[in-house]
Amino acid sequence: MLQNTEFTSRLHGSMPKIGIRPVIDGRRGGIRESLEEVTMEMARTVARLLTDNLRHSNGMKVECVIADTCIGGVAEAAQAAEKFARLNVGVSITVTPSWCYPTETMDTDPSIPKAIWGFNGTERPGAVYLAAALSAHNQKGLPAFSIYGRDVQDIGDPTITEDVKEKLLQFAKAGLAAATMKGKSYLSMGNVSMGIAGCIADESFFQDYLGMRNEYVDMSEFIRRMERGIYDKEEFSRALQWTKANCTEGPDVNAPALQRTREQKDQDWETVVKMTLIARDLMIGNPKLAEIGYGEEALGRNAIAAGFQGQRAWTDHYPNGDFMEAILSSSFDWNGIRETFVMATENDTLNGVTMLMGHLLTDAAQIFADVRTFWSPDAVRRVTGHTLSGLAENGVIHLINSGPAALDGAGEQSINGLPAMKPFWSITEEEVQKSLKATKWCPAVDFFRGGGYSTDFQTRGGMPVTMARINLIKGLGPVLQLAEGYTVELPQEVHDVLDQRTNPTWPTTWFVPNLNGAGAFKDVYSVMNHWGSNHSAVSYGHVGAELITLASMLRIPVSMHNVAADRVFRPSAWAAFGADDPVGADFRACACFGPLFG
């Protein structure tokens, strides 16, 4: 496993920190003095929990900043706010075991996600402060998450109970995701692909909801850099050698008259490797370019996510972007094991953002896929003669797209012996080789007139996954939908028949959502029928609750999910908008409070 000293940020700007605010009853003469140590120890205990359990997606350890003193009034609150601003605190957690003065001690920065842990003890009324402080936050339009242990503890008990741990970690990870996006760029390489509306970069959405900026380059920039040699020649040679050694060509399914010659295919390999280097350099820069006289190009666009238009302006003449998108989206390349790049095919900005959210919450690579086909049990039986069983007995959704699914998505990594997609610092070289061997690179099908290569693998079954997507609705704004479920494997002969009806040169993930018998999750068909776009982002793990928490911070309502009610964690104010109607309350609360950075 890699050591922490090897982890660095490839983007400009320091990593956001978590601010811990020990709040206290400010009355001197015995009251405050009796609480100083126990309150500060609460803060230290929370800091240890978070730093021991959380990393940023780049592998760097999460840092916590504790206020210099307990906060008993407005002066000390201001001192803590100044320290937090200076040290780039992006997430705020207030802790206390006792009564304090809410409006005098609260964090009032509207752009920082906030949580309050009020200790459940009877000796001092920490729960009373929690309720009063939440009321103050809600009245002032500063939504805060409520953390309150289920069971009464003794004052001074240093234990963080499991239910409190779960909420602290869920809140902190989501808050760090929001803070990490802030100030970064989404880079559109090209513009709108094939009339897909998700390609249209809505700058108000990026700026107001995510705190991000939009950057743009025309795809002709790839041509310029290839023709003028604006890339690292030594790395290109090494990358091409690695590609030839590790990326196995799959079958060419094109009619003989449409197949490219061996010479053309070899040239395509060189082109797609160059495209990969150039796209990465456009995103994060490359100091090597300054050494060859291209100082401006060396800087990059500070892009935490990007998308490539490709079709059709590029792919009618040049090799497609599938290799570039798949390799960048994976957790490894010729330079070794590293953090995935978030790269959306067809420059679907909304799917790119969803992938980014999934990556920041799981630290792992994402699968970009079309939500292509619902196969009912009857349809599968009619076409193949096979009766679906097990998790697939109610039908399956075919997730497939030409190339941008990360190679991690093959499921050749493992956790406790089961298929998984892991943070890069947990991936072994053996798992990298297994992922590469599970993937074929098929010559692009004929509608990619410029050639290229598409990934082809089958995702292993049994992985818990979450399929998600943000959609923009006129008059409403961004809306998130998600479905937790599992990947499944079909018998090879059944897969082959179904795959041939779509495209056998593309990677397949057979997905089965968890059903609850109601609404959008009445059956598998209903999930497909309610999906709001042709694309989805797939994360490893059942992380719907984490996505919901992050969405509530950003004020993005969730229109469709199958997460159990006891896992949903939103700011306390949401209950005031209709506790018996959580879906409607979410929409009303998000509309009322408005986007986090707007």
Largest sheet: 6 strands, antiparallel, barrel
Radius of gyration: 25 Å
Kindly state the percentage of residues in helix: 25-40%
Q: Low-confidence spans: pLDDT under 50, at least 5 residues? A: 1-5
- In angstroms, what separates the terminal alpha carbons? 41 Å
* DSSP strand content: 15-25%
Number of contiguous helices: 19
β-strand number:
23
- Please tell me what the overall shape is: globular
Looking across the biggest beta sheet, what order are the strands in? 13-14-21-20-19-22
The overall average pLDDT, rounded, is 96
**Which structural category fits the helices and strands?**
alpha/beta
Please outline what is shown here.
With 598 residues, the chain is of the alpha/beta class.
What does this structure look like?
The protein is α/β, with parallel strands linked by helices and 598 residues long. The strands form six sheets. It has a six-stranded antiparallel beta barrel with strand order 13-14-21-20-19-22, surrounded by four helices. The protein starts with 16 loop residues before the first strand and ends in a 5-residue tail after the last helix.
Features:
alpha/beta, six-stranded antiparallel β-barrel
Q: In terms of topology, how is this protein built?
A:
Blueprint: E1 17-22, H1 31-53, E2 64-66, H2 74-86, E3 89-96, H3 102-105, E4 114-118, H4 126-139, E5 144-147, H5 162-181, E6 185-189, H6 203-210, E7 213-217, H7 220-228, H8 233-246, E8 248-249, H9 262-284, H10 287-291, H11 295-299, E9 303-308, H12 322-329, E10 332-333, E11 336-337, E12 343-345, H13 349-362, E13 367-375, H14 377-384, E14 396-400, E15 413-415, E16 418-420, H15 429-437, E17 440-443, E18 453-456, E19 464-473, E20 477-488, H16 492-500, E21 508-513, H17 524-530, E22 535-540, H18 544-554, E23 558-560, H19 582-593
Parallel strand pairs: 1-2, 1-3, 3-4, 4-5, 6-7, 6-9, 8-17, 9-12, 20-23
Antiparallel strand pairs: 10-11, 13-14, 13-22, 14-21, 15-16, 17-18, 19-20, 19-22, 20-21
Helix pairs in contact: 1-5, 5-18, 8-9, 9-12
